[in-house]
Amino acid sequence: MKHIAILSIVLFCASLSPLAAQVAAVKPVEIIPSKDFRALEFENSPALQSILNQAVAEVLNTYPAGKFKMEELAATLLDLRDPKNIRAANINGDVKIYPASVVKMFYMAALHQQLEDGKIKLTPELERGLKDMIVDSSNEATQYILDVLTDTSSGGEMPAKEYEEWSYNRNRVNRYFTAMGYERINVNQKTFCEDAYGREQQFRNYKGENRNMLNTNATARLLAEIVLGRVVTPARSKLMMGLMKRDPFAQTKDEDDQGHGFSGKLLADRKMTDARLWSKAGWTSKSRHDAAYIETADGLKFVLVIFTDNHANDRVPIPTIAGKVLDGLRK
Fold first, then answer.
1. Which of 18, 83, 301, 309 minimizes the number of CB atoms within 10 Å of its CB?
2. Domains of the chain as residue ranges with CATH
């Protein structure tokens, strides 16, 4: 019987695909920031704050009283024209907000760190998942990427000891960004088209707790660090930028896609064909968010992150605020 058991194990291992066998042999590994990583530094600018305040106020004032409240919006603006002297401004910039698909930008950065360190091997399937997560904002691809990053998987509810280990692994991305000085964020949940079940719901304490949370300051910082080539390596940052490149002038049947329904609408409406846009948007039944980096032919280079709650189907605020910010920067 002992020989039969050993033979069964050998046959089972032989039946695994090469990739599955490799994954089975890999032990859980932490995501560690690059040794030469230095957090982006910037200074609050009264002049920039005035531009952002005025842009937001002018847009909100177009709504009837009480229809769009200031607490339903958060925004952060970074002027990147001088990378050694980055100016910043924000409104509710440190308030934690459910980020929808904007969180996928954080998972992308974490995955590139693991790829660079050789802790995860890039396969055609992983490359497809990464592309679909950022370019198409696929929730299914995001679920797969987070499984790969954290050595966890969805499934049935777990007993306490097993669940404790699973939870620790699932928080691996959080530990990575904490080590880089990111604050007031939670990036440990999968994104779903409908709802979470089983251990995913258990991870939320069955009450919607422990949800993903970002603030616009942290989101703007990550996007700026990618733009400036500071995330993982310049080469890795360039790859991330490639996935976030948007064309607001491309023909589409979806007016709410990432290139047309958010900050890109500003460029399309003004026919700014010589401007360039990189972004990651998020959209749910309640939220409408965008994290955008815009370059213009006359030299503007700025990151603008805008989160809105309770106005998910309103296509006006994000591109209109972006347009007013752009005009203010030109003065």
1. 18
2. 2-330 (3.40.710.10)
